[in-house]
Amino acid sequence: MFKAIVSASTLRNALDSVSVLVDECKIRLNEDEFGVRAVDPANVGMVDLTLEAAAFESYEADGGVIGVNLNRLEDIAGMAGSGDLIHLELDEETRKLHIQVEGLSYTLALIDPDSIRQEPDIPQLDLPASVVIEGAQLNRGIKAADMVSDHIALRVDEAEEAFYIEAQGDTDDVDLKLEREDMIDITVGAADSLFSLDYLKDMNKAIPKDAEVTIDLGEEFPVKLHYEFAEGLGHVTYMLAPRIQSD
Amino acid sequence: MFKAIVSASTLRNALDSVSVLVDECKIRLNEDEFGVRAVDPANVGMVDLTLEAAAFESYEADGGVIGVNLNRLEDIAGMAGSGDLIHLELDEETRKLHIQVEGLSYTLALIDPDSIRQEPDIPQLDLPASVVIEGAQLNRGIKAADMVSDHIALRVDEAEEAFYIEAQGDTDDVDLKLEREDMIDITVGAADSLFSLDYLKDMNKAIPKDAEVTIDLGEEFPVKLHYEFAEGLGHVTYMLAPRIQSD
Amino acid sequence: MFKAIVSASTLRNALDSVSVLVDECKIRLNEDEFGVRAVDPANVGMVDLTLEAAAFESYEADGGVIGVNLNRLEDIAGMAGSGDLIHLELDEETRKLHIQVEGLSYTLALIDPDSIRQEPDIPQLDLPASVVIEGAQLNRGIKAADMVSDHIALRVDEAEEAFYIEAQGDTDDVDLKLEREDMIDITVGAADSLFSLDYLKDMNKAIPKDAEVTIDLGEEFPVKLHYEFAEGLGHVTYMLAPRIQSD
């Protein structure tokens, strides 16, 4: 069983974090949290979302798994004002999710979870460097990189205690340098990796501009981006595989 | 003869109500009102617009009929600020309409009224049910229906004294239920009819979100939507033919 | 050498005035001003931009010429907030322009100035009439003309002391009449010329709506439009060749 009430803005933040990578996903309706783990079709980007029961106005679940079309669910959540409450209730027999918001009732046909790509294991990685910056700063670096290239390098300069977002185009280069005082926190370590800009742009779309984003990095290693929403009760971790540096 | 001065916002509201259904129309320039009746090319949706002489700053007319290209007239009205006054004057000899607003003069070639589709008779119907709701609520129901289907059912539940806007998609359903306290007024009666969503979406575009919309309904009967603008001096009635309910 | 600091809004205003006509241009980095003269590929519209050294926070230059891709430079300037300062520095050896704004560094590859169309000579013309109007009024006349035609006539009526912006379509006509009291200034003289609306629309895009635009006109002669920005330290002159009047 599953029956919950949640604010429209919290549900939208949760769904957006996943829908930037995949169209369909499995949602785990655990007793103490609502969770999604998904990987994009090319196995390059992964997301791990959890929304604690306390982030809901009310939450009852017993560990089931449902498959959903994220765009449909986002459209419905988009009908609500951001202060509105959304009521969710699973009908076990018909395998439909009943969604209600301010007089509006939507019956969403679920997808067989077995037809959806397997949930990935998010690997434990011992990444040597970590920076914590505002979503707005990450956004600025990504927009700048997008002017010249479709790749982006994330690098920590240990001596300078600085974090660089860099891109090299055919003729032009761009970089955003964040020094210790520009960041919320930095743990220096050997870190320099190249990533596909497309994936990072998609992830960036879901990251609130005022969120604190923790970026864990290594040398030609995947990057992990972590942020919270819903007053710390919603947690998103993205992992993105590196591209081989050509030079 | 025809010579009138009207506020840009009033003229725009009037034109919009017709242009959502047709591109060209006849305007009746009666002594006491400015009127349009039009039907879309498929004979599914009709509009009856009247704007009383008192809605104009000044109004002189003697019963002539002119044919106009609505998009042209809307473009000109769109050049004015909403507080601006638009001067209209018919040149009987050249069959052109002179339009002036704040130093701008536009000479609009008229269309031979005989080349425009005949004005429809809006049938008198004795519809048993009627609800009065805000334009914003109708808009919400139409947007919700549009997520799942291209048809929309409007239904009154007599026992519940409730008005339902419903849509059934291939897999998903949606309905908006308005109870007595959500509405401005309701007259219960047997009413359940299905309509093409496209037409209702077009009509909805012209209906101000803060207007009181009266919806008259029956069982597999046309629906009539009525609202007023220009402080009650502008009147719009839409009529939409029903679709056959397939189940 | 070239090294300068300028506010993002001033640089954007300067670049926009040129980019509406050409994609690439030569910039003259004179000791006392930053200047561009360019003509569109069809030799119909010309622009002469100068931005005085005093319009910059700091400015050092010794008379060099660089070739730039304007869209690239505009994209970078667009990354800055309007209050941000943009640092520009020419690397003579690599022929690259280093651009810095708030931690962001962009290295722009320059274009060989010899590969860019020759700078035009802006002819000295003795135009008999001149009007000074607000950018917003010019914009209004151009938008009105665009409803009916792809040509626009600019005309001064000497007896009325009025300025007319006129357009004749196949069936409809439009004109905006500005009388002495609607204008900032007028010098009457014989003036009536026809222009391609496309060019004037492009120029209009760059003209701030609150700028005072001086329009110098003659009989079937080019028009000159002049306005200032950056508190009078930036100067733009457009010149547009006339079309032959067909009637």
UniProtKB/TrEMBL annotation, chains A, B, C:
Pfam family, one: PCNA_N
Domain Proliferating cell nuclear antigen PCNA C-terminal residue range list: 122-242
First and last residue of the signal peptide: none
Domain Proliferating cell nuclear antigen PCNA N-terminal: 5-100
Gene3D superfamilies in the cross-refs: 3.70.10.10
CDD domains tied to this protein: PCNA (cd00577)
Keyword match DNA-binding: yes
GO terms, biological process: leading strand elongation; regulation of DNA replication
Molecular function via GO: DNA binding; DNA polymerase processivity factor activity
InterPro entries: DNA_clamp_sf, Pr_cel_nuc_antig, Pr_cel_nuc_antig_C, Pr_cel_nuc_antig_N
Keywords, comma-separated and alphabetical: DNA replication, DNA-binding
Subunit composition and interactions: Homotrimer. The subunits circularize to form a toroid; DNA passes through its center. Replication factor C (RFC) is required to load the toroid on the DNA.
Described purpose of this protein according to its UniProt entry: Sliding clamp subunit. Responsible for tethering the catalytic subunit of DNA polymerase to DNA during high-speed replication. Sliding clamp subunit that acts as a moving platform for DNA processing. Responsible for tethering the catalytic subunit of DNA polymerase and other proteins to DNA during high-speed replication.
Similarity field: Belongs to the PCNA family.
Protein's name in the database: DNA polymerase sliding clamp
